[in-house]
Amino acid sequence: MIALLLALGSSLAYGCADFLGGLGARKAHVLRTVMIAAPASLAVELLLWPFLGASFSADALAWGAASGIASAAAFALLYRTLAIGPMNVLSPVTALVSATLPVGVGLLQGEHLGAAGLVGLPLALVAVVLVSAGHGAGTARPSRTALLLAFGAGGAIAFQLIFLHQTPSDSGVAPLVTGRAVSSAVILAAAGLMYRRLGSERPAYAMSTAAGVLDSMANLLFLLAARSGDLTVVAVITALYPAGTVLLARSVLAERIRRGQLVGLGAAAVAVSLLALT
After folding, report:
1. Which of 12-21, 48-57, 137-146, 233-242 has the highest mean pLDDT?
2. Is residue 137 scored above 70 in pLDDT?
3. Do residues 174 and 54 lie in contact, with contact meaning Cβ atoms separated by under 8 Å?
4. Apex 131 CA angle, 244 and 14, nearest 5
């Protein structure tokens, strides 16, 4: 139950971070947004270090660095995806990919589900699909480029979560600090190489910083959830973050929520309840 609540908190934080990051990337080049978000996220994790501790063992450093590289790719691909839009279609596509890979890894590693979990897990995956169901009138059709970016972002997020799950349970926030330091270095290096292509638009500093802070909290909550529960359950609950993104997109950007998406939100609530019983 604790793992489930932590995963729900991670999902909510990811959803809010993605929405803010996507909006920020609409105001300036995506790298300008990520250049602010990633260091802001690192600052939060450094502040948490004295309270949660950190053990920088070889495994913690290796898996943390791997998650950082995946995180850098996820940051750039996801924010670019959401900047293109529409958010209420592309975010769920990304989430479905990011859920399926960790679930597969968890099952291959020998994790097992009870009867309720065997129903709740596929229902949660279906819920993610339903949230993105249909285009219809009033909803923009995503481009092929946007869909490819969404799949790439989902894969990068999935590997980030899988790598974090492999870290030692007694390493504290060491994997997060290592990962974010690596991702910040990769992002800043990429920005330096592409400086002339970044344009002159000023980034949304407050929005980008908030996205980084929320992403950091989401990573922490996921790590704690993965350490106290099964990856199969934690990953699919975390992947429900599009619900938050979709609702924010509806409230702030007036993006239409279709009936299928509402059904998906209801299915997600039922799936979470079933997984709580597993």
Report:
1. 48-57
2. no
3. yes
4. 30
C-alpha to C-alpha distances, 23 to 150, 211, 228, nearest whole angstrom = 16, 10, 33
Cα(17)–Cα(241) distance, integer angstroms? 10
Distance CA 47, CA 103 (A): 31
pLDDT at 85: 67
188, 68 contact by CB (below 8 A): no
pLDDT value of residue 163: 94
pLDDT in tens, 85-119: 676 667 667 777 888 888 888 888 887 777 777 78
| DSSP state letter for 225 | H
Q: Is the dihedral of CA 236, 9, 79, 172 positive or negative?
A: negative
Contact yes or no for 180/45 (Cβ under 8 A): yes
Helix (H), strand (E) at residue 206:
helix 205-228
**Residue 181 vs residues 97, 187, 204, 207, 214: alpha-carbon distances, Å:** 25, 10, 22, 21, 16
